[in-house]
User: Which sequence fits this backbone?
């Protein structure tokens, strides 16, 4: 693969200090970031979803919900956090070739002092509680291969649930990944689970091998 440097790679090279910053930031910030996500979802329900019949307005549903969710996440942030949140962010680290479109996250929290370090969230519409195939594919084909979240030991999946029960979604995810889902002690009042995995790290890379995936199921 013949790749030259991006501006980000030139500005923030992968030094030992770079990897230390990534590791410490991910460990300390994940619960804070996920709290912002849940608060943003609650605001989305109040301001948007309560006013529409989603079954009659499902054109570009995944993109629309994410578009309206991100500013409501940001609204709960003080502006003094060491990270920003953005909608549709490119991951240049795992681009295949100079001309190829890099992977793009639906949402990402981005470290202010090193913008190559991102904590990503991927969203999938679940039309029923059994329709978890595309959701599972994001976990197994992207997060667990390091295509997504190369510098992060954690990331999240958002399941926008149209019909069914969250408990059934979690059971089907466990079966299809496969994995064991555990409650998150910080989010016991939400449809929030976590799973721990060993990733396939590409040769020559120092990406985190141990990876925690958060599963947030959001009824619409």
Assistant:
């Amino acid at each position: 693969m013949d790749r030259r440097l991006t501006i980000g790679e030139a500005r923030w090279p992968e030094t030992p200090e770079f990897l230390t910053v990534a590791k410490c930031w991910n460990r300390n910030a994940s619960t804070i970031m996920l709290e912002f996500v849940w608060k943003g979802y609650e605001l989305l329900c109040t301001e948007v979803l309560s006013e529409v019949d989603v079954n009659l307005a499902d054109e570009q549903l995944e993109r629309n919900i994410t578009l309206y969710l991100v500013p409501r996440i940001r609204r709960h942030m003080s502006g003094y956090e060491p990270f920003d949140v953005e909608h549709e962010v490119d991951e240049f680290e795992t681009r295949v070739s100079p001309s190829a479109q890099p992977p793009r996250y639906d949402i990402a929290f981005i470290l202010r002092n090193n913008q190559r370090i991102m904590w990503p969230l991927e969203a999938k519409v679940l039309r029923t509680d059994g329709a978890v195939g595309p959701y599972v594919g994001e976990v197994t084909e992207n997060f667990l291969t390091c295509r997504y979240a190369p510098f992060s030991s954690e990331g999240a999946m958002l399941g926008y649930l149209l019909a069914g029960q969250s408990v059934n979604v979690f059971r089907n995810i466990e079966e299809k990944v496969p994995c064991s889902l555990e409650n998150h002690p910080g989010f016991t009042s939400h449809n929030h689970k976590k799973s721990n995995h060993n990733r396939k790290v590409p040769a020559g890379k120092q990406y985190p091998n141990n990876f925690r995936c958060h599963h947030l199921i959001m009824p619409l």
